[in-house]
Amino acid sequence: MSALSRYITTDRAFYKKVLHIAVPVSLQQMITVGVNLMDTVMLSSMGDAQLSASSLAGSFINLFQIFCMGIGMGASVLTARYWGMKEINSLRKAVTIMLRFVAVFASVFTLATVFVPGLIMQMYTGDKENAAEIVGHGVTYLRWLIPTYFCMGLSLTTTIVLRSVGQVKIPLISSIIAFFVNVFFNWVFIFGNLGAPRMEIAGAALGTLIARVFELVFICGYFFFRDQRIAYRLKYITMRCADLVKEYFRVCLPVLISDGLLALGNNAVAMVMGHISAAFVSANAVTTIVQQLSSVLTQGVSHASCIITGHTMGEGDQEKARQQGYTFLLLGLAVGVVAAGIILLVRAPIIDYYKVSDEAKLIAWELMDAISFIMVFQSMNSILTKGVLRAGGDTTFLMAGDILFLWVASIPLGILAAFVFHWPSFWIYTMLKIDQVIKCVWCIWRLRSGKWMKKIRIAGESGE
Description:
Oligomer: single chain
Largest sheet: none
Distance between the termini: 39 Å
Helix content: over 70%
Order of helices and strands: HHHHHHHHHHHHHHHHH
Radius of gyration: 22 Å
Number of strands: 0
Strand content: under 5%
Structural class: mainly alpha
Number of domains: 1
Shape: globular
């Protein structure tokens, strides 16, 4: 412990900076979870089929969202570093490449939803008895949300870039307003209030779409026309970026692959759940909200660690970055323990609140126990993988860890637990998330080695 304590920072300015970034980001994440919570609660009164359909269709949309997070967080490794270097031209080029990249992904997901929404839903649905009903509701939900990919992709990635240069208030304000917009239009269209037609699951999709359009106008309007830190304007979308493309993809492509594998892994979990029973899907929908709420502070600290470490590395102070890395690790442990305790405290009233079957409630109870156990490890490794180590430029190493532990350990063990050994729900979930435990140990070892601190080139600089 004495060797470790040498690296724990006591600088008050550091902790103030962490709070300045982490609190608004956490609040924004909490508001996002609140939107999902209201969707789930309102649709739960429509029965298991519509709730399951929205949850499973949402898994495909979340797949796109996580890809966007990968694109945005990969770009933020560069933008935070360039901000620390005061290299604004390189920063703008990184943003341009990011926007072009996200447009390609949004086009692919939009075309898939337009032409094969039924196939998308069938991938997630294995409950033979209710499959046709769930698929039908899911297709309706997806079709209403076709425009959301471009809205979400642009607003989410520009939000991440704004955070990387310390601008966290504007995204928070946008999320607060979007929350009330979503809840209001859900209430109007799901239940047919204020003279509107009763649309049920289609109304939930329409309310979400309206909120996404608002976020696009608010965030991108500020980013392209008002922001003075980066001062990125629409004309830069056509700027030449050939001298930075290689460095961008060297740093960002492993991040996209890592987060893409995470997205596919989460979808594999949804598929496993979907092929067990509708009650299992409903239980997972209930616990998803708890997982998201319990991890909002972790996400806030992760973003703070990525931004602060990037700025410190950009200033060229590697020893300070190492010290901050150990500090973030301990913060992750503390946050994880607190989150686990909160889950155990609130699980009973949350499960009882949902209007789902008794079988779904029993399964949800088991899943809550597993989530509280995994959360401690997940918090520590998320702050390292999504924050400190990623900001250091160690993205290829992190990609290798995601491939190895998720696809060699978690997914096979989860499938065996569910379909071969028929273990209880607690062990199915634990096996599906066992990579969180393994990665925690893996990343602590990497942090200690110091090999995660990489040099990043600027625009126009030739490689060695």
